[in-house]
Specification:
This is MedDCM-OCT-S28-C64-cds31. Keywords: Signal. With about 525 residues, the chain is mainly β. The chain has helices at about 225-230, 355-360, 410-420; strands at about 5, 15-20, 40-45, 65, 70-75, 85-90, 95-105, 110-115, 120-125, 130-140, 145-155, 155-160, 170-175, 190-195, 200-205, 235-240, 245-250, 255-260, 265-270, 275, 300, 305-310, 315-320, 320-330, 340-345, 370-375, 390, 395-400, 405-410, 435-445, 445-455, 460-465, 470-480, 485-490, 500-505, 510-520. A hairpin with a 4-residue loop joins strand 4 and strand 5. The longest helix has 9 residues, at about 410-420. The chain is globular.
Length: about 525
């Protein structure tokens, strides 16, 4: 029988670090960490990776969505060759069944999304630097898929979503370079109009060329590339009125705004830097960061380090008629055979005024392990680094539609996972827990965010009804489910058992976990 961790927050706030503590003890130090309104319990895990060695079925399941009419769950399967969309019967949640694997193409399948009786799949080309495809399927009453339309979109479609009104399908086309960095396609966003039916679907692709020659604060790391080449659209959130799309540009540490009426990118806003002088983190993977006392604390330090937020998944929701954007701040670098920006702090030449000898003397064993960018931080152009800048916010944030941050979870993810023992210290020098996926759902009048932590194998749950004061609810994990990618919420009225369900897809273990959400 699988064991599961349901952490109702255990955390000891200390100046030198955070102590491990048993699950289900109370956390102190933050008023928004102790007001639990829901309780989540593990029901079942299934999939090809169940009972198999970890990593043997990596990429079996990444992105999934649920069809209420047939009670089927559809999941991308990048392990199969050619790639498939796997269809699972969830009519009995205690006994999920794989019904079929549908071949969608030789280039892989990166994302699926469902609206009504349509399933959209993002399918890259077998040559990743060529334009990819959007494939639209009809879902039959029994859940069977029939291809209705295949359309050419931008290069490397990595995420697909329907607009809330169902009139459009939007793909985020990453346009990643090849490993040699000799080919660097442009990133783009494709808008597919299906308002007149799938058979009459039309494709418009919004590019970023208008920003190539404009003075901008948007991050570029390759001097010879244009901004249109540098942007790699990762994820899309659409406003409730289906008029605006917000697109995460992860490597650029930015959000693009797309007008879905004009089908053009109207603006790009920089997300700024997170300041670790006020957000103490563990920035080293070395054992010197483990306290030798009986409490086995992982030491966290406030340091003169900034970090780019760089969200992966983003979602939009409304409060009081205003749109807010929620971001899972994973972090990412450009690291290819032909070009890599990654370098450890110990290999940087640091400005002596900003980083005096007393600090540089311990760089190699502590802060020196942190991965950073060789392209960032030399503000005065004199060849040394005036500011250490790392990757990822190690948090989730909430922004207004105009790009103003109204909330950031700061170091809560690190503190919570250190307290319950799920923190992976080997990732401290990289991007920590790497918040990656994100689901948002209204349950019994409150709005909740479900944030997947890829490297800690935990799903964090917050009440975000007040975007300026989210309230932590629970940290959810189940044994054998490793590297959660996405969180799918099934409403009680659509659920096979009549209760609200949380589905977590787990990339590394190749498993899918079912949880039930109950009111306390």
């Amino acid at each position: 029988m699988k064991k599961y961790l349901l952490t109702t927050l255990s955390l000891l706030v200390m100046t030198v670090g955070v102590a491990y503590a048993a699950p289900s003890t109370l956390i102190t130090g933050d008023s928004n960490l102790n007001k639990q309104n829901i309780e989540i319990k593990h029901i079942k895990s299934f999939g090809l990776g169940v009972g198999q060695p970890l990593g043997d079925f990596e990429a079996v399941t990444e992105i999934a969505d649920f069809h209420p009419g047939s009670k089927m769950l559809y999941s991308t399967n990048g392990y199969n060759s050619p790639a498939t969309v796997d269809r699972y019967d969830l009519s009995d949640i205690n006994n999920p069944l794989l019904v079929e694997s549908v071949n969608v193409g030789t280039g892989g399948v990166t994302s699926v999304n469902i609206y009504g009786d349509l399933l959209a799949a993002a399918v890259p080309s077998s040559t990743p630097t060529n334009n990819g495809y959007l494939k639209i399927y009809n879902i039959a009453e029994d859940g069977a898929l029939t291809l209705a339309k295949s359309l050419r979109v931008g290069v490397l479609p990595d995420m697909v979503t329907f607009s809330p009104d169902g009139s459009m399908i939007i793909t985020a086309n990453e346009g990643q370079p090849n490993d040699a960095y000799t080919i660097d396609p442009e990133g783009s966003v494709s808008i597919i109009d299906i308002s007149k039916g799938v058979a009459s679907a039309t494709v418009s692709t919004a590019n970023f060329r208008a920003f190539n020659n404009n003075p901008t604060s948007i991050r570029k790391s390759v001097p010879t590339a244009t901004l249109a080449q540098e942007v790699e659209p990762e994820y899309i959130a659409v406003s409730a009125d289906s008029k605006m799309a917000y697109v995460s540009l992860q490597e650029n540490n930015a959000i693009a705004v797309v007008d879905l009426t004009t089908k053009k990118v109207t603006s790009i806003w920089d997300m700024g830097l997170k300041d670790y002088r006020y957000n103490c983190m563990d920035l080293s993977d070395k054992e010197t960061n483990i306290d030798s006392s009986k409490s086995k604390r992982i030491k966290t330090k406030c340091a003169n380090v900034r970090s780019m937020y760089q969200p992966d998944a983003i979602q939009a929701y409304e409060v009081g008629g205003h749109t807010y954007i929620v971001t899972a701040n994973e972090g990412d670098s450009r690291d290819y055979d032909g070009y890599s920006e990654e370098v450890r702090v110990a290999d940087l030449t640091l400005d002596k005024a900003a980083y005096p000898k007393s600090l540089t003397a311990v760089l190699d064993t502590k802060l020196g392990r942190l991965k950073t960018s060789k392209e960032e931080g030399d503000f005065d152009g004199d060849g040394d680094v005036d500011q250490i800048i790392g990757y990822g916010g190690r948090s989730f944030s909430i922004y207004t539609a105009g790009g103003i941050q109204v909330f950031d979870s700061r170091n809560q993810f690190s503190r919570i996972t250190m307290a319950d023992g799920t923190y992976q210290d080997g990732r401290s020098d990289d991007k920590g827990c790497e918040p990656e996926g994100l689901g948002i759902e209204e349950i019994n009048g409150s709005t909740y965010a479900f944030i997947t932590l890829e490297r800690c194998s935990v799903i964090m749950v917050y009440d975000i009804s007040d975007p300026r004061n989210p309230v932590f609810q629970q940290a959810v994990s189940s044994e054998g489910d490793v590297s959660p990618e996405t969180a799918v919420i099934i409403k009680a009225e659509d659920s096979p058992n009549g209760e609200t369900l949380l589905i977590g897809t787990n990339e590394y273990s190749g498993t899918i976990a079912i949880y039930q959400i109950n009111n306390k």
